[in-house]
């Protein structure tokens, strides 16, 4: 048995059914030999995106793996891995490494050294005997604590070395371990929560990974506390149907999220790092902060926590429910909060109704978002955005439903990421209508990987919001555009999609948007990837322009 065969065997025992990859690496053949299906992308960063989307939709329950060759392959994967790291996505990276003696010597690219800043852990198998322990450590890191990419580099010469045939015999799959918060900390924080006049809950991606959406709803309903989510936490509560859902908070925010967060006297942040970055939910000053996270690095990082709790989001929320249930009769917020949320939601949607129902030509992109929601039930879809205007437009306005029916991302702004995420989502949930919104610039980055969706039988729907410009750069490139047309981009994307083997439709009339979505859904259900090219206006994405400072 070779070292590479041991790795494949461990992947199989851990439950891997797919290996996202780009040649050349011996790991592909070794995995295929034991029934692990290779998913071959056209470029590495998209393959990483497929693994990323799969990991998000499955909440890391099934191994999500990407492997690539040493040198250029490992180098080209960096943007995708940096995005996964910034969004804390649990995925295993298995780059081939240069043979020992040539590795870590200029100009050879070392994955272990280079990826140390954007992975949860990075390790090289430098002797054959380390393979089992290295893989066990990798899967432990994937399944425990704060999620994130984990890297194990396999040097080319080590990969083919022979090891004992029984090396795999003692390997058992790594189990997940979870911890509650200190009960005294919970009791103190619960008392503050109960005493607050206008509390809000800020739910992050940790709620989704912990599969704690039911606990989140139970606590919110018990105490009648409205809930907003972070960008990555979007879908932790139904924005369409739950009477306490405020929508998303980010550098773009739903109206209810903005107003309730602004007026809150206490913020209970759960499953979020509360990192202050360009697209984060910024918490205004003067509020009591209760912060529950599974990573001690998060606590007091950017905000001083009045009550800090370290533990798994599902278990911590259950602790709060149990602690508050005995005292809930003394809390008098009642259904009045739900009425306030409903009123704020109606006022916000009424304000945006002219754009959402616009008959203007070129098509207003907000009309496209509304038509998708009206023609495809959000519970039957998984939607993601790309960077720039698609993110700013879709993130607040698309009202998602069930957990993981929306994949929000973007701390690291890698244009084109949404295409791979959608394919990974389809791989994880074949019965869902998986949609990625792209702009012209994003398609230029990764659009040819639409052919990967065709070849690998991943029938997603790509929505091209074609305005032939980089609208998000309007303010930043005003003079250069006036003199040299620097924001202009172009292409006939429907024609490209057809040439790559997919189905495509170009839509210019607002009244044809809804029927186009129905047709695209039918086509994808028949097994063909679809691309809808909507000719849209240069509408700028909706933003409160870095709310609260």
Keywords summarizing the entry:
single chain, 549 residues, alpha/beta, 6-stranded parallel sheet, 22 helices, 18 strands, 39% helix, 15% strand, globular
Explain this structure to me?
- By secondary structure, the protein is an alpha/beta fold.
- It has helices at 3-13, 26-33, 44-57, 72-76, 78-86, 111-114, 131-143, 156-159, 183-195, 205-209, 213-223, 255-263, 313-325, 336-356, 365-375, 389-397, 417-428, 440-446, 450-455, 478-484, 493-499, 513-525; strands at residues 18-21, 37-40, 65-68, 92-97, 121-124, 150-155, 199-203, 227-229, 245-248, 266-270, 288-293, 307-310, 381-384, 406-407, 433-439, 461-466, 503-507, 530-535.
- The strands form 3 sheets. Strands 2-1-3-4-6-5 form a 6-stranded parallel beta sheet.
- Helix 1 (3-13) crosses helix 2, helix 3 packs parallel to helix 5 (78-86) and helix 12 (255-263) packs antiparallel against helix 14 (336-356).
- The radius of gyration is 24 Å and the shape is globular.
What's this entry about, in short?
The chain is of the alpha/beta class and about 550 residues long. Helices cover about 40% and strands about 15% of the residues.
